[in-house]
C-alpha cells in the first residue's frame, strides 16, 4: 500500500497520464519506476523520464565474494567499466550473454553477482545539484568514465553543457524495489534530462583522448609500415599511452614494439631492416625474423638518423656546454636568450657493421643535415654564417660535402631559407619570395614580400643559377620530399587546407593529389617506381583517418578511421562556407559551424575566431581551439581568414608586412557584420570574439576599435609591440617580417599606435586575458601590461595565468581547464549564465 500511495501522489503531482502506467507489464514495476523517480520538490517542475534507464545483470550471479569484499575491488570494477560503457546491446560474462534492458524489467527482490545501470544525462547549460542513490548498499557512480566521490551515496554534481554518460555499478542491493534515484537541483534553473539514445554530443574528452596516429613510416617497397597511436585517459591523466606496431600491406599486425615509444623510425634501402631510437639506444629490427639487435647506446643528443647506404647512417649529434655555477650570464648575442642557444650540433656517420662513428662536420657553428645523395657520395648541409648574428634576417649558408674527398663547397648564403633537397644533380630549395635577390617575387615593386610564404626553387650549376618554380602558384610550400625520378612531393598551405601536390620536374607543373582530406598531417612514401604514400589527416567535420595513396592512379584507400571507435553516434556540427568581399574587392574566405540541434526560429550567441598572423586557421577537426566543440555547446562559430595569411598568393600575404592589424581588423569587423546579416538566427547582441598569439593581439586591438563584440578572449596576446619585439625569444625575428625594416627608433608610430595598450582607454568590451606564466614566445608581461591598464581604467577585465605553461596549453588537465574557462566565460557574458564561471573562480 505504501508504494501504491506513493505512486498516486507522485503521479498526481507530475500529471502523468493514466496510459503511462498501463504501458508497464506489472503494476509493481510502475511503482518501482516512480519510486526510483522520487525527487526533491525543487525538481518536480522538470521530472526525470526514468524510462530512459537501462539495466544489465546479474553479472556472474554465482560470485561468492563481491569486488568490495576483496583487496582488489577498485581494479576489478575499473577493468569492467570500459566494457559496460562500450556495450550498447549485450555483454558476455564468463561465456553467458547478458543484455541491456529497461529498468522496469527487473522482477526480483534481490539478484546475485553484480548489476549495472546506464543512462545519459543531457544538459542545456552548466548544471549543479545533488544526485542521491537509495537502496544500493555497495555501489559506484561513474560519470563520463570518472568515479564520483560521494557522502553516503549522495553526490554533488557540476555538469557542463553536454551529454554525460552515467554508469552505476551495484555490488550489493537488499531489495531492488527500494532502489531510488533523486536529483536535487541547486537552483530552479538546474535541470537534467535522462536519455538512452545512442546519439550524443561531441565532448572535450573525445577530442583530446581519442586515438591519434602521431607517427607513421612506410617501407621503401611499401610492403610494410609502422604507426604509433597515442591515446589519453582518466587513469594516466597527462601521460600519453602509445602503441607502436609493424603491419604488412594487408594491415595485419606483425610486431608490437617494446614498452615506450620508439622514435626516428627508418628503413634500410635494401628493405631488410628497420632502425629506431628507444630509451637512448639505437635498435635494429630484422623484418624477416623480427629479431632485435642493439646497434649503439649512450646516444644522448643524437637525432635525425637516416640511411646513407645499406650499412651506414647519417645523424645529428648535439652537445651542450657544461653548466656552471656562475651567478651571472653574459649574453653573447640576441639568440642567447634561447635556453639552447649555446648547444651545437654536428653531422656524423655511423657504420652499423662495426659500430664506429665518424664526425663529418665541426666548428663552433651548428650544421644541419638537409639531404644526401649516396650515388654521388655527397650530402647537403646548412649552417648559420655567424654564430649569434645580430640580424632580423640571419644568413644561412648552404654547403655540400664530398664524403670521399672531404671537400666542402659553398652553394650560397641566403637571408631567407627553409630547406633543401637533391633533385638528381640539382637542388630543390624552399624559401621566401626574396630568395636569391627576389627571384621568387610575384609582387609590385612597391610591396615588401612576406617571406613566410614558402616558394619552391631549383638550384643548378653548383648554386650559380636559380629558377623559381612556384611564382604563379598561390599555395605556400611547406614540407618537401623528392621521389626517385626527381619529382617532388610537397605539402602546402592552400587557403585553409593543407593538401599534397606532386611537382613534375620534367613538365615543371604542380598536380594536386586526391587525398580526400582537408588537412594532411603526416605522410611517408615508398621508393619504388609505382610510388605509394601513407598519410594521416582530418577534415573539418571528420576526425583522423589513415590512408594509402597510389600516386600514378591518384586514388586513396582507407586503412583506418577513428570515427567508429572514438566518435560513434556523436553529433557533429554542420559546416557551411561563408565568404565575402572586403572594401578592396578581395574575397575573404571563412566557414561557419552550426550546432547540430539548432532551431532557426530562435536566437543564438556566436563566437568569431581568427588568427590574423601570417598563417590561416586550418580546417583540422580538432586542435587547441575546438570549433566543433564550441558549436555543440550552443554557439554558432564563424572562423574568418583575414588579409595577410599565406596560402592565398603572395600579394595577399605581403599585406601582413608593416600592417599590425590594419587590414586584418577591417576584415574581421566587416566579415562579422556580413555574417550577422546572413545568419539571422544569431543574436547580434551576443557575439564573442577570441584569438591567440597574433590573434590575441588582434582581440586586444579590436577592443580598442569596435563595440560589435559583447565579450572577448585574448590568449597569449601582444599588447605592446616594443616589449614583445625586445623580450620574446623570437619577437625580433618575427618582427623582421611583420615589421620589416621598421624599428622603434625609425617608426615609433607603428610600434606605439598599433599597440593596444596605448589605446586602452577606448576599450568598452569585457575582456578575458589568458596566458601561460612560462611563455617564452609572447612573455606573460604582455597580458599583465594590458590587465594593469584596464584595471586602472576600471574596465571589465579578467586575467587567468596557467602555471608552468608556455605559449600553448598541452597538458591534459590544463587543456580541459582552459577549454572550460573559455566556454564558462562566454556562457557568463553571452548566455547570462555565470554559474560555471563562478564555480571555477568565485572562491579564488
TrEMBL record:
Residue ranges occupied by any Peptidase S9 prolyl oligopeptidase catalytic domain in the UniProt entry: 627-832
Protein name in UniProt: Acylaminoacyl-peptidase
Coiled coil: none
Pfam families in the cross-refs: Peptidase_S9
TM stretches of this protein: none
Domain of life: Bacteria
Keyword Plastid found: no
UniProt keyword annotation of Secreted present: no
UniProtKB keywords: Hydrolase
Source species of the chain: Pseudoalteromonas aliena SW19
Amino acid at each position: 500500500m505504501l508504494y501504491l500511495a506513493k505512486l498516486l501522489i507522485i503521479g498526481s503531482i507530475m500529471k502523468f497520464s493514466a496510459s503511462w502506467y498501463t504501458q508497464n507489464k506489472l503494476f509493481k514495476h510502475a511503482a518501482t519506476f516512480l519510486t526510483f523517480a522520487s525527487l526533491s520538490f525543487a525538481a518536480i517542475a522538470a521530472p526525470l523520464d526514468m524510462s530512459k534507464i537501462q539495466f544489465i545483470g546479474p553479472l556472474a550471479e554465482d560470485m561468492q565474494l563481491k569486488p568490495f569484499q576483496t583487496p582488489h575491488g577498485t581494479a576489478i570494477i575499473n577493468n569492467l567499466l570500459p566494457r559496460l560503457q562500450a556495450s550498447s546491446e549485450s555483454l558476455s560474462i564468463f561465456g553467458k550473454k547478458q543484455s541491456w534492458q529497461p529498468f522496469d524489467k527487473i522482477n526480483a527482490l534481490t539478484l546475485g553477482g553484480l548489476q549495472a545501470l546506464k543512462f545519459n544525462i543531457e544538459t542545456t547549460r552548466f548544471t549543479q545539484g545533488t544526485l542521491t542513490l537509495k537502496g544500493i548498499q555497495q555501489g559506484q557512480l561513474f560519470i563520463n568514465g570518472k568515479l564520483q566521490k560521494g557522502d553516503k551515496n549522495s553526490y554533488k554534481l557540476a555538469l557542463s553543457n553536454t551529454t554525460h554518460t552515467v554508469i552505476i555499478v551495484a555490488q550489493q542491493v537488499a531489495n531492488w524495489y527500494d532502489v531510488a534515484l533523486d536529483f536535487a537541483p541547486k537552483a530552479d534553473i538546474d535541470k537534467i534530462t535522462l536519455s538512452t539514445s545512442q546519439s550524443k554530443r561531441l565532448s572535450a574528452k573525445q577530442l583530446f583522448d581519442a586515438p591519434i596516429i602521431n607517427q607513421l613510416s612506410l617501407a621503401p617497397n611499401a610492403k610494410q609500415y609502422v604507426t604509433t597511436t597515442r591515446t589519453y585517459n582518466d587513469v594516466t591523466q597527462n601521460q600519453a599511452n602509445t602503441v607502436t606496431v609493424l603491419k604488412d600491406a594487408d594491415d595485419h599486425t606483425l610486431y608490437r614494439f617494446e614498452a615506450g615509444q620508439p622514435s626516428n623510425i627508418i628503413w634500410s634501402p635494401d628493405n631488410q631492416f628497420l632502425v629506431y631510437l628507444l630509451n637512448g639506444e639505437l635498435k635494429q629490427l630484422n623484418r624477416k625474423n623480427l629479431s632485435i639487435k642493439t646497434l649503439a647506446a649512450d646516444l644522448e643528443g643524437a637525432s635525425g638518423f637516416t640511411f646513407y647506404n645499406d650499412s651506414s647512417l647519417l645523424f645529428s649529434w648535439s652537445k651542450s656546454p657544461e653548466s656552471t655555477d656562475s651567478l651571472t650570464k653574459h649574453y653573447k648575442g640576441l639568440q642567447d636568450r634561447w635556453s639552447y642557444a649555446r648547444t651545437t650540433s654536428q653531422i656524423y656517420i655511423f657504420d652499423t657493421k662495426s659500430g664506429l662513428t665518424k664526425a663529418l662536420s665541426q666548428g663552433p657553428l651548428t650544421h644541419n643535415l638537409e639531404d644526401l645523395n649516396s650515388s654521388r657520395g655527397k650530402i647537403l648541409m646548412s649552417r648559420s654564417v655567424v654564430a649569434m648574428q645580430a640580424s632580423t634576417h640571419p644568413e644561412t649558408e648552404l654547403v655540400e660535402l664530398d664524403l670521399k674527398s672531404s671537400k666542402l663547397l659553398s652553394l650560397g648564403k641566403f637571408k631567407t631559407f627553409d630547406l633543401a633537397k637533391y633533385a638528381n644533380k640539382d637542388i630543390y630549395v624552399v624559401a621566401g619570395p626574396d630568395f636569391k635577390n627576389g627571384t621568387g617575387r610575384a609582387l609590385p615593386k612597391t610591396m615588401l614580400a612576406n617571406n613566410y610564404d614558402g616558394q619552391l626553387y631549383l638550384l643548378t650549376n653548383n648554386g650559380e643559377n636559380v629558377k623559381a618554380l612556384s611564382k604563379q602558384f598561390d599555395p605556400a610550400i611547406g614540407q618537401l620530399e623528392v621521389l626517385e625520378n626527381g619529382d617532388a612531393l610537397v605539402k602546402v598551405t592552400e587557403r585553409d587546407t593543407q593538401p599534397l601536390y606532386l611537382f613534375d620536374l620534367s613538365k615543371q607543373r604542380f598536380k594536386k593529389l586526391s587525398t580526400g582530406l582537408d588537412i594532411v598531417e603526416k605522410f611517408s612514401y615508398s621508393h619504388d617506381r609505382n610510388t605509394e604514400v601513407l598519410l594521416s589527416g582530418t577534415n573539418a567535420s571528420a576526425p583522423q583517418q589513415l590512408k594509402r595513396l597510389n600516386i600514378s592512379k591518384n586514388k586513396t584507400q582507407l586503412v583506418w578511421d577513428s570515427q567508429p571507435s572514438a566518435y560513434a553516434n556523436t553529433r557533429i556540427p554542420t559546416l557551411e562556407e561563408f565568404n565575402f568581399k572586403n572594401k578592396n574587392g578581395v574575397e575573404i574566405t571563412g566557414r561557419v559551424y552550426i550546432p547540430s540541434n539548432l532551431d532557426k526560429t530562435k536566437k543564438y550567441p556566436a563566437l568569431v575566431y581568427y588568427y590574423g598572423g601570417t598563417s590561416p586557421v586550418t580546417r583540422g577537426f580538432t586542435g587547441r581551439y575546438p570549433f566543433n566543440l564550441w558549436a555543440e555547446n550552443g554557439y554558432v562559430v564563424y572562423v574568418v581568414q583575414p588579409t595577410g595569411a599565406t596560402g592565398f598568393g603572395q600579394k595577399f600575404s605581403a599585406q601582413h608586412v608593416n600592417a599590425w592589424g590594419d587590414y586584418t581588423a577591417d576584415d574581421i569587423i566587416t566579415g562579422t557584420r556580413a555574417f550577422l546579416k546572413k545568419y539571422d538566427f544569431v543574436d547580434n547582441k551576443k557575439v564573442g570574439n577570441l584569438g591567440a598569439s597574433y590573434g590575441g593581439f588582434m582581440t586586444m586591438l579590436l577592443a580598442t576599435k569596435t563595440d560589435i563584440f559583447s565579450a572577448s578572449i585574448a590568449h597569449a596576446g601582444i599588447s605592446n609591440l616594443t616589449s614583445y619585439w625586445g623580450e620574446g625569444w623570437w619577437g625580433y625575428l618575427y618582427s623582421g617580417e611583420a615589421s620589416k625594416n621598421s624599428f622603434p627608433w625609425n617608426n615609433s608610430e607603428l610600434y606605439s599606435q598599433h599597440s593596444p595598450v596605448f589605446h586602452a582607454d577606448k576599450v568598452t568590451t569585457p575582456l578575458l586575458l589568458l596566458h601561460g606564466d612560462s611563455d617564452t614566445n609572447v612573455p606573460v608581461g604582455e597580458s599583465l601590461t594590458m590587465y594593469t591598464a584596464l584595471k586602472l581604467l576600471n574596465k571589465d577585465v579578467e586575467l587567468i595565468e596557467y602555471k608552468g605553461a608556455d605559449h600553448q596549453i598541452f597538458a591534459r588537465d590544463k587543456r580541459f581547464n582552459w577549454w572550460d574557462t573559455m566556454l564558462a566565460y562566454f556562457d557568463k557574458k553571452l548566455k547570462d549564465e555565470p554559474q560555471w564561471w563562478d564555480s571555477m573562480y568565485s572562491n579564488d
